[in-house]
Specification:
With 262 residues, the chain is α+β, with helices and mostly antiparallel strands. It is built from seven helices and 17 strands. The chain has two domains: 38 residues, no CATH class; 197 residues, Pnp Oxidase, Chain A. Strand 15 and strand 16 form a beta hairpin. The longest helix is centred in the middle third of the chain and has 9 residues.
């Protein structure tokens, strides 16, 4: 397939939020339409094509527990990489204490995630977050309606409601976008070592002591701010109320490129 640049007219049509749903609803899902339509080059404000939601618990400087939804996460072996806006409370907590817990919600726990949208432990709330409607929340566990249970290896509580809880220690800090004058200093990737894995009994694979049953484990997935539970039916997403363009660098009130960013 060749890709092609949008003319100004095409740009207006293809980028129109009001038209996009109708235009792309059924036609483009048929294989005939997929085979014949040339790709078009677009300029999305965010590139969140779909990753699991993680509720990261960490310890604030005053000793209280923090809980932050995030989704720039992937695993390799026993290691995990998490991408954060560098000035958020959570990455600061993890770098100061060297510890956190990655609590993985399924679609059933989407309400916990939704209740934490646009909250931060930072006080005062940084200007870019204020512009997106964020507010300070000192007790994120209470705000989420999450039950804190002690961890085994780290001094950070787990979220009892989440079917998967991964205790983790900080391995390395990787500054991101270091050659991008616009984003330099705004993003950080934290490399974690998973030191303990806790799973709810209902997602264990029958006959195997240490395996997860993929048909039983349905991670909550965030794709372009919408939440999914690995079925065709989207889950209610509070995050999706933030206009995508608010994430574009340079836009009024924009953050550093992530539902995430900072
Ligand atoms: C579904 C979802 C996914 C998010 N993904 C990220 C992410 O990958 N990285 C990030 O820095 N923030 C992400 N955020 C935004 C953080 O939750 C937000 O910055 C929050 O204020 C962090 O809490 P803290 O400031 O107390 O650390 C996400 C939010 C939601 C609701």
């Amino acid at each position: 397939m060749t890709s092609m640049l949008l003319t100004p007219d095409m740009h207006a049509t293809h980028n129109s939020d009001t038209h996009s749903h109708d235009m792309y609803s059924s036609d483009t899902h048929s294989s005939a339409a997929r085979d014949s339509a040339p790709h078009v080059q677009i300029d999305p404000a965010i590139l969140y094509f779909g990753t699991p939601v993680v509720l990261v618990s960490s310890r604030n400087a005053d000793g209280s527990a923090n809980l932050a939804p995030m989704s720039s996460a992937w695993w390799l072996g026993r290691s995990c990489m998490l991408g954060f806006g560098a000035r958020s409370a959570t990455p600061a907590n993890i770098q100061r204490t060297g510890q956190c817990v990655l609590n993985l919600p399924s679609a059933h726990e989407a309400s916990l995630v939704n209740r934490l949208v646009r909250t931060t432990a930072s006080d005062p709330v940084p200007p870019h977050k204020l512009a997106m409607g964020y507010e300070h929340e000192a007790d994120k566990f209470a705000r989420a309606g999450a039950t804190a249970v002690p961890s085994v290896h780290v001094d950070v509580p787990r979220v009892a409601e989440c079917p998967v809880q991964l205790e983790a220690e900080l391995e390395a800090v990787h500054p991101m976008a270091v050659r991008d004058p616009l984003r330099r200093g705004g993003l950080v990737a934290l490399e974690l070592r998973i030191v303990a894995v806790h799973v709810a009994p209902h997602i264990r694979m029958a006959g195997h002591a240490h395996r997860v049953e993929p048909d039983a484990w349905r991670p909550l997935i965030m794709s372009f701010q919408r939440l999914y539970g690995l079925s065709d039916v989207p889950v209610e997403s509070e995050l999706a109320r933030i206009p995508e363009e608010a994430y574009r660098r340079g836009a009024a009130g924009a953050v550093v490129a992530s539902p995430s960013a900072s």
